[in-house]
Amino acid sequence: MRAPGASNRSRAPGRPPVGTGVSRRTAAEAAGVAAFLALALLGVPALRNGYWQLVLQTSAIYTVVALSLALLLGRVGMISLGQVALLAIGGWIALRLGFATSMPFLLVVLVTGLLTGLLGTLIGLPALRLSGLHLALITLMFAAAITLLLEATQFPNGGGGFLGHSVLTTAPSILRRPRFAAGDAAYYRLVVVVTALMFLLVVVHVRSRPGRAWAAIRQSEAAALAAGVNVTLYKLWALALASFMTGVAGGLLAASGGGLTVYQFPTQNSIILLAVTLMGGISSLWGPIVAGLLFEALPALLRTWGLPSDLLIILFGVGVIQVQLTAAAGLASQVPRDLANLVRLLGRLAGRPRGRELSG
Amino acid sequence: MIEISDLTVRFGGVTPIDRVSLRFPGGTCGLIGPNGAGKTTLFNVLSGFVTPASGSIRAFGHDLLAMPHYRRARWGLRRTFQTEQAIEALSVFDNVAMVHEHTGGRRSGRRREVLEAIGFVGLEVDPRALVGTLGARERRLVEIARAVVGEPRVVLLDEPAAGLPDEETEQLGRMIRRIPEERGALVVLVDHDMSLVSACCEITAVLDFGHLIASGPTPEVLHDERVRRAYLGTEEDL
């Protein structure tokens, strides 16, 4: 709902050129996101609801994956339809490291991130010269290949050999948690803290040299080259960073809930994640949070209401169209703007005489 | 000084530049010709986006063609584009700072040099304003500020006045004329606005279908019979 006469397009020309420096905007957004994450950190465990705590924990993990996707798509202009497959790879690496070594948990997660970053970059290497539809297709093929591969190898569960999977045991594929975060509430907090660190990593990048280089590449590779930007290097850097974050998310997921199964990572999830990331908004820091909640918390909500969560596929399809048509910047900017318009409208309806006074 | 010798570019069966030899001695040099004459292709060769079939380009004693394209900006080659390419997602300051930091400008002097470049082009907007919120003229000026920040050696301007009203074009011309002396760079100006070219350029070269048909002092070139026939039309009053 919009107030009559209110300009309703974020792309509309003639927006006042007030001091909207990009770094200041990012800073304000970052502060908001930090406050939100602090609230999630302290508030959710206090509710003492194990089910919703787990749902929000998984939402936070998928928020990190959506953040990596938004980084690629929104900041650099590279599309990936294989991010959930990369998440599965991260989970696999973390489990493999966890069973094979006695590394502390945080180190496992860090090394998982680095290895996934390396792998993601290597996979992205041949795709560097591609863009748009071709890059999307290549990454989708990659996701499909990983899904098939995982069905054959399964996740490590403490077995021997390189694959570390034993069919003789029913042991779950779960990464042992660190001693300081063994309990569910403590692990939830750890996940939120790591999510916050990933946001920090992105903000630091976006506000400095790589962020400016990415903005140039996103607008025009030719102009970026003419400005002295080593386009290949900065694209690889973005791929490495996005894959690193997704790998870290995989490590977190491996110690979450009941562990990993191959059924958690169907190929279509990469596409659904792209849809919710677009819906949330790829150029705002709030977007990935909205995306994580849409991806994990909304299905959980439907389940508790006894509705089939397949409804969401339709809803997300319509949602992407809605967002692309009416608010290219995503729900993260559309909802507050519409709410503000609604409040203004209600305010005008409630206090007409005063409004007239003001305008007169 | 830029010295182009025997330059040939081929795209399949088309030869947009055919054995062109040309010298830009310094100051502000014009490059004109009808659409499809090869002006932008020549800029693209200089920037490294197009690899010529043969020929050489020496700029201030350096072999330009031997440098990878992104290194040329660091060396001092800057350009603007026919369709203006200021980065919408960044502020005016960050647009210019981005070029400064990728062309070897020192961090310590960045703020001062960036603001100096913004001041040089005569931009009177808040440097923190997003370029996406600016008008056409201001965005062109941002692009030129990007081209002159730091230590440029060669500035290629591809139709900087396209779409601007006469008065703004005159202002732009006055600023372009100051680039060689105040920013220390050789300027090559491509434009269809003959008043801008004659106001800015001492020397002008004319391309037609990939061939150099004239070059020399601008007034002489503009009155050259072949140039008038090929490009300006004999009827047109200069």
Characterize the structure shown.
The complex is a heterodimer of chains A (360) and B (238). In chain A, 70% of the residues lie in helices and 0% in strands. Chain A contains 14 helices and no strands. The model of chain A is unreliable at 1-21 and 354-360 (pLDDT under 50). Chain A is an all-alpha fold. Chain B folds into two domains: 1-76 and 154-168 and 185-238, P-loop containing nucleotide triphosphate hydrolases (Rossmann fold); 84-151, no CATH class. With 238 residues, chain B is α/β, with parallel strands linked by helices. In chain B, α6 links the parallel β7 and β8. The two termini of chain B are 29 Å apart. Classes of the chains: A mainly alpha (360), B alpha/beta (238). The A-B interface holds A 15-24, 209, 212-213, 215-216, 218-220, 222-223, 225-231, 283 and B 47-49, 69-74, 78-79, 81, 85, 87-91, 93-94, 97-99, 101-104, 125-126, 128-130, 133-134, 146.
What would CATH call the architecture of the largest domain in chain B? 3-Layer(aba) Sandwich
- Would you list the SSEs of chain A in sequence order as H and E? HHHHHHHHHHHHHH
Average predicted local confidence, pLDDT of chain B = 90
Number of helices of chain B: 9
> What is the H-and-E element order of chain B?
EEEHEEHEHHHEHEHEEHH
Give the % helix of chain A.
Answer: over 70%
Which structural category do the helix and sheet elements of chain B fall into?
A: alpha/beta
* CATH superfamily grouping of the largest domain in chain B: P-loop containing nucleotide triphosphate hydrolases
* Most extensive contact: A-B, 28 and 35 residues
Largest sheet of chain B: 6 strands, mixed
Q: Helix coverage percent of residues of chain B?
A: 25-40%
Distance between the termini of chain B: 29 Å
Quaternary organisation: heterodimer
CATH classification class of the largest domain in chain B? Alpha Beta
